[in-house]
């Protein structure tokens, strides 16, 4: 008997891929900037992710070179084509 539900974004790679998918669907505002709240709100409320899963996903995407997080933490930029990343 299982008492704990499986979390779809418990793995940082799964969370990062969902964040890339979200980022690809959001039109950038300036110089490819995507405000972090445009990723955070849907990830937490629509897809039922958690704060730690969001943080781990962002960190994973940065380490892999998929996203760039501004030092202020207010926006990200896609660094690679989302088509390449989402095809895997």
Characteristic key phrases:
88 residues; mainly alpha; three-stranded antiparallel sheet; 4 helices; 10% strand; globular
Describe this structure in words.
By secondary structure, the protein is mainly α. The protein has a domain at 32-82. It is 49% helix and 10% strand. The chain has four helices and three strands, in the order αβααββα. The chain has helices at 12-25, 36-46, 51-63, 82-86, and strands spanning 34-35, 67-69, 75-78. It has a three-stranded antiparallel beta sheet. Helix 1 (12-25) packs across helix 2 and helix 1 (12-25) crosses helix 3. The protein is globular and about 45 Å long.
Largest sheet: 3 strands, antiparallel
Structural class of the helices, strands and pairings?
A: mainly alpha
Number of strands: 3
Widest β-sheet, arrangement of strands: 1-3-2
Overall mean pLDDT:
89
What is the strand content? Answer: 5-15%
Distance between the termini: 33 Å
Give the ordered list of helices and strands.
Answer: HEHHEEH
Rg, Å, rounded: 13 Å
Overall 3D shape: globular
Unreliable residue runs: none
Number of DSSP helices? 4
Helix content: 40-55%
């Amino acid at each position: 008997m299982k008492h704990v539900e499986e979390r779809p974004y418990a793995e940082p790679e799964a969370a990062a891929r969902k964040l890339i998918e979200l980022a690809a669907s959001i039109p950038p505002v300036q110089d490819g900037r995507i405000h972090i709240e445009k990723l955070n709100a849907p990830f937490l409320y629509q897809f039922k992710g958690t704060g730690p899963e969001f943080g781990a996903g962002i960190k994973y995407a940065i380490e892999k070179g998929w996203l760039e997080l501004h030092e202020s933490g207010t926006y990200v930029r896609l660094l690679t084509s989302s088509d390449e990343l989402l095809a895997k």
